[in-house]
What we know:
Helix 4 links the parallel strand 2 and strand 3. A 7-stranded mixed beta sheet has the order 1-7-6-5-4-2-3, sandwiched between helices. Strands 8-9-12-11-10 form a 5-stranded mixed beta sheet. It has 14 helices and 12 strands. Helix 1 (about 10-15) packs antiparallel against helix 2 (about 60-70), helix 2 packs parallel to helix 9 (about 240-250) and helix 12 crosses helix 14. The chain has 2 domains: about 10-250, Aspartate Aminotransferase, domain 2; about 255-385, Aspartate Aminotransferase, domain 1. The chain is about 35% helix and about 15% strand. The protein is globular and about 75 Å long. Pyridoxal-5'-phosphate binds near residues 81, 178 and 181.
Amino acid sequence: MSEASSSKGFGTRAIHAGQAPDPSTGAIMTPIFQSATFAQESPGVFKEDYDYSRASNPTRKALEKNLASLEGAEFGLCFASGVSAEAAVLHLLKTGDHVVLCDDVYGGTNRLFHRVFGQLGIEVTLVDMTDQDAFEAAFCENTKVVWLETPTNPTLKIIDIAKVSEEAHAKGAIVCVDNTFCSPYLQSPLALGADIVCHSTTKYMGGHSDVIGGALLMNDPDLHERLKFIQLSVGAVPGILDCFLLLRSTKTLHVRMQRHSENGMQLARWLEAHPNVERVLYPGLESHPQHALAREQMPNGFGGMITLYVKGGLAKAKSMLEKVQIFTIAESLGGVESLIEHPGIMTHASVPPDQREKLGISDSLVRLSVGIEDVEDLMADLDQSLS
Ligand SMILES: *Cc1c(COP(=O)(O)O)cnc(C)c1O
């Protein structure tokens, strides 16, 4: 199955899409074509589109086809990191263009949009996209892109992708969804009307906390052409070995996401009943304010990200992080191992205190990236850390 055949199931595509046994040797795994350049038969005559690896490379192409297939996209482009994939989309814009950005977006995204592209005269408005009126009011004459993440980070708000896309298209803007928290196994933004899906493949797609990478997936040939030109011209392409590692990772994506979601659901339920926990935010809980929308938009599970408010404020939150034994205190998410972090001190420290307060990022807030260890062990670890 070399084609990204969308008629096959997710697991089959995860394992086979974009990859066939190597024609020259029969190698089952796509080789690591660790070559910067390729021999030409005569000037300008070379195999497929392989003249130089920044432009195209067989290992990277296999990954791009694989990721496109998983997102139900025609085209895929891989980048050196999630933020460089984001930057490629922003390079579509000109000075004076405007972006509507969801308010509790990944910190690095916020920084890139405001402090790098803001300097080039790209205007950005942050808005709570779960608030319909506020969202509509955020549009300007020059709005070209709507950018969102759902669930958001770290408060796990759910944004209605179909509704936002309809609204944005009516106003002449394209929609880019950062699908990093869900992976294509849990959520399909393109099918809901988005124009581009962005991933930090560093997270669930990679799944093993050993690669930094990014990707863009899309159906529109014109958008693909323009973004491919930017990929070639700016050159933030991934290394070939990293492409190989990611191809290996996506083969187990469906199985990992199932276990992340099972563990996430069980831990969220258990934490909600814990006497030392004030409140748990998890899209799979009936208590989540947008649980009904989450069920619709994330039909295959709710993933491994849990946010909780512990009783006892900063002191208690800190002591919880210091006491864990299986969970590791670290930034990042989406790996097979469970991680715990304090957004106020760690991932969201760069968000100004008043904005943190508005977003609900209080001192007692703790974020978990639930891995695929045995859930009983994770429970016991959290229990002793909360006591
Ligand atoms: C990590 C992350 C990014 C940035 O990706 P890098 O691979 O670290 O550059 C973007 N969006 C989300 C939601 C992330 O979690």
